[in-house]
Amino acid sequence: MSVMLRTLLHVTVLTAPPDGGSDAFLADAEQYRRELLAHCYRMTGSLHDAEDLVQETFLRAWKSHHKFEGKASVRTWLYKIATNACLTALDGRQRRPLPTGLGAPSSDPTGELQTRPEVPWLEPLPDEMTDPSTIVGSRESVRLAFIAALQHLPARQRAVLILRDVLQWRAAEVAEAIGSSTAAVNSLLQRARAQLEEVGPSQDDQLPPPDSPETQALLQRYITAFEAYDMEQLVELFTSAAVWEMPPFTGWYQGPQQIVSLIKHNCPAERPGDMRLVPTTVNGQPAAAMYMHNPQTGQHEAFQLHVLDVSADGVFHVVAFLDAALFAKCGLPITL
Fold this sequence. Notes:
Structural class: alpha+beta
Helix content: 40-55%
Mean pLDDT: 89
Strand content: 5-15%
Distance between the termini: 31 Å
Number of helices: 14
Order of helices and strands: HHHHHHHHHHHHEEHEEEEH
Strand order of the largest sheet: 2-1-6-5-4-3
Radius of gyration: 21 Å
Oligomer: single chain
């Protein structure tokens, strides 16, 4: 779909009558592309869908830019278009969970791994693809746990909560954007906040910046333990209630011993040097791209992208995404 949208936009621009207004609009709008991507990602929980919806937003905006009256900023106008494009796209769709969101108890780490291809899994958002000011200014609003919690909200509640609590829009602005009343917006926001309080991360559970010395030191210890195949060190790094999950596998695992047992029984690595990890940042959180040694080629090849929740006590949550396509999105090579 994204290729089709890009092609359509390109053809439309080439065949439309040239005018300075079109060029000026496109130049002005382009500066908001990365923050619109973060917005569409919050709405959908999917990087792929967010990319498509940003393209659709620009196409819709370009087609109707001559109607733009300047009553609001171009940025606000683009957010309005993007929000409504997301609401249309979300109509009738399943929510995007992580394995912990499927409602099953924690799994046996020595058991066979199971997948459910029909589940539209939550996807990560590489910091490489977003506006750094968006991440730094509202890191909690792109955190995986927050995005997963948003998936429990109906689409309109999700939109209202994001526009009001993340983007700090006034209720009247939100009402105008989604074609509703201020009273309805306030009601939707109240219900969304109550639901988010039940399923979302604790307000006291604040993440340290991924570039802080403490976080970087912990991430380096995590990387070193995997590369050295030091399972005892890994046990020490995880908190007592730590959770590990790795979509598209449906299982999730809790506790250091369970997590390490899973790695021993189900990870292709067998010895030091089989795994190499490269630090990065994803969803405003510390992350590590894991490369697995392929004895047939002699290379370390893209394997998993680990997104970490950390605290002063250690690593308390890891989502390991088994999707090599994410490496390019993070600006990382496919092989080392």
